[in-house]
Amino acid sequence: MISKPREAFEKILPRMGDLPSIPSSVSRVMEVLDNPRSSSNDLADALAMDQSLTTRILKTVNSAFYGFPRRIETLSQAVTILGYRAVRELVTVTGLFQELDKQASEPGLNRPEFWRHAAGCGLAARVIAERTGTGRGQGIFLAGLLHDIGKVFLDAFLHDEYLEALELAGQKQTSLFEAEMRVLDGANHTDFGYWLAEEWNLPPSLTAAIAFHHDPTLSQDHYTLVCMVHVGNVLTRALEVGFGGDDLVPAVNRQAWSSLHLTPSLLESIVTDFDQRLSEDLPLL
Amino acid sequence: MSGRKTPPRTKSPGVEQARILARVEKRFAVHGDDDIMAAIKQVTQRYLLSKLKERRDK
What we know:
The complex is a heterodimer. By secondary structure, chain A is an all-alpha fold. Chain A is 66% helix and 0% strand. Chain A is built from 16 helices and no strands. Chain A has helices at 5-12, 24-34, 40-48, 51-61, 75-82, 84-101, 111-132, 139-146, 149-157, 159-172, 176-183, 189-200, 204-212, 223-238, 254-259, 264-281. In chain A, helix 4 crosses helix 5 and helix 7 runs antiparallel to helix 8. The two termini of chain A are 35 Å apart.
């Protein structure tokens, strides 16, 4: 058990190596993506600086999902085919997650299943946004994808304590959220995720989703987005898509549910859409 | 000495269905009769049973 979690976080920062900063190749790609005057060639040039990104993008565009009769060999062709949104998501997944997974150790958080949960949450949040007409844009998927980033930090840098929380949740049939609070002196993954997001200078919308996805009512500036991620998280866990660290299904906040105008019949169509997209989109991530 | 391995026993559809439903009940038990969580539980049951059927039909 640790005391003074914020101090524990501060102490970890100097020994985190590459973690506090997003890899420079990813930052460069993000800059190009954010520049409305950039071309697909600019993007291809930025991607070419990173071998793992290049490989991932070419592998994706040549997958059965796109079904092109001939092999796509160049990044600029791939970018044109995939589109900027898909490239942004692939870059985030590949760049950030590979960096974070360098610190994974066994036993601990099951990373492949964890990332499947995270990507599932991003997808669910996006489907909720589309079906309810309450939001749009590429930030929704990313917000879902990164919502539990604090868990990865804890698993990597406070591993013994986090293992204790994971075991506590498994044995006592309590939520991981509550187990974290017991082991981390009242703090949980949303606190650590928030501090990490601040260190990384992530956009405020992503920071809000990371910090408030368990209680959207605390979010002031990005309330609707946080509600989508909140419900997306509950839904992904309920449907057993990946594994977030414990078996219990967290409660949906009634205010969040109402503000998204969700109903049981709408939920049914969201799940149908989500299931279809899960098999089409998720293998690509 | 190696003998022929016994093939894994396949559970009957009814047993697997019951197991899935029991697991869902357990995972939602803490929410009591909350109407929103009841709606999520229902779609979860249907979803997981449909996945079971998909696996069996393959």
